[in-house]
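TASK: fixed-backbone design
INPUT:
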């Protein structure tokens, strides 16, 4: 069983809308939100809160990226969304710190994501991809919840 010291700390201004659970050689994550838009936003932000920590301000530039996704079902949309964020982060050397879900209807998503140069961050762990292993996106009494395993 692999154990990771992620150096996580919660700040008073950032509520913790996710928890980490143990998973062999990967990281499991449970995310909650009052609605689907908040669930997708919280999941997107959580992967960067888990993987990195702001440490420097070498580059004050912020990059705004618009993401549009379509999928065959909600679970596929959820995994595609997280993987698109990870892909854009790696390709453009960005860490996303602000996400606005503009549209989430049916199996279509449109979001506006703001990122800063990864040089401003200390990377704790590299998340390669969100997987379909143990994936679950469901309506709960308090809103929505998801469970996803991240390949590291």
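OUTPUT:
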């Amino acid at each position: 069983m692999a154990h990771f010291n992620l150096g996580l700390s919660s700040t008073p201004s950032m509520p913790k809308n996710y928890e980490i659970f143990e998973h062999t050689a990967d990281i499991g994550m449970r995310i909650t939100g009052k609605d689907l838009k908040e669930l997708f936003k919280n999941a997107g932000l959580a992967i960067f809160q888990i993987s990195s920590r702001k440490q420097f301000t070498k580059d004050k530039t912020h990059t705004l990226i618009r993401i549009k996704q379509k999928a065959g079902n909600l679970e596929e949309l959820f995994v595609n969304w997280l993987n698109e964020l990870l892909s854009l982060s790696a390709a453009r050397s960005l860490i996303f710190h602000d996400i606005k879900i503009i549209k989430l209807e049916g199996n279509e998503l449109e979001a506006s994501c703001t990122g800063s140069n990864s040089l401003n961050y200390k990377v704790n762990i590299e998340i390669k991809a969100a997987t379909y292993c143990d994936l679950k996106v469901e309506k709960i009494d308090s809103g929505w919840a998801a469970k996803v395993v991240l390949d590291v």
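COMMENT: The longest helix spans residues 74-92.
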